């Protein structure tokens, strides 16, 4: 049975995920993008043009799912599909100028939010918080993997 401190910690963690999700949804909506489409832009910005298969693999989603996400980003003018230079059967998903500008804006907003959220924390406090989060994330990954086998 869980003790009350563990239950309280889980309750706070769940509250944190709800608050972060709500804030992220509202912020991204102001920028004209959804939470499901934003990671596609981040991957392309970090790694360069990618095939849809590579994007699906990177984001751990199905090829069908990535097709819908890319279709939306194309329609919004954030990415294009270009012929692959070495594979006639494949296309590369590439950021447009608008996509590059959006990624730069999102990165600046993330930096500002980080400063607002953690700017007054002492380095030792932030390090301890990060260690606790790392431990929690690692344990959750272990539990998920164990449940899948």
TrEMBL record:
Top-level lineage group: Bacteria
Q: Name any one GO molecular function.
A: DNA binding
* GO biological process: one example: response to stress
Keyword 4Fe-4S listed: no
Give the matching SMART domains: HTH_MARR (SM00347)
Q: Which InterPro entries match?
A: HTH_MarR-typ (IPR000835), MarR/SlyA-like (IPR039422), Tscrpt_reg_MarR-type_CS (IPR023187), WH-like_DNA-bd_sf (IPR036388), WH_DNA-bd_sf (IPR036390)
* Keyword presence, DNA-binding: yes
* Keywords noted in UniProt: DNA-binding, Transcription, Transcription regulation
Q: Which stretches make up the HTH marR-type domain?
A: 6-138
Q: What is this protein called?
A: DNA-binding MarR family transcriptional regulator
């Amino acid at each position: 049975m869980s003790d009350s401190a563990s239950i309280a910690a889980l309750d706070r963690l769940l509250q944190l995920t709800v608050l972060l999700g709500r804030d992220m949804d509202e912020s991204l909506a102001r920028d004209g993008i959804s939470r499901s489409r934003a990671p596609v832009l981040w991957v392309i910005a970090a790694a360069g043009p990618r095939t849809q298969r590579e994007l699906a693999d990177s984001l751990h989603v199905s090829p069908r799912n990535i097709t819908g996400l890319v279709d939306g980003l194309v329609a919004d003018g954030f990415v294009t599909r270009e012929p692959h230079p070495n594979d006639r059967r494949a296309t590369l998903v590439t950021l447009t100028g608008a996509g590059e500008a959006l990624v730069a804006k999102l990165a600046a907003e993330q930096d500002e939010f980080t400063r607002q959220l953690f700017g007054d924390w002492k380095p030792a406090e932030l390090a301890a918080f990060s260690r606790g989060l790392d431990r929690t994330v690692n344990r959750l990954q272990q539990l998920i993997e164990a449940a899948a086998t």
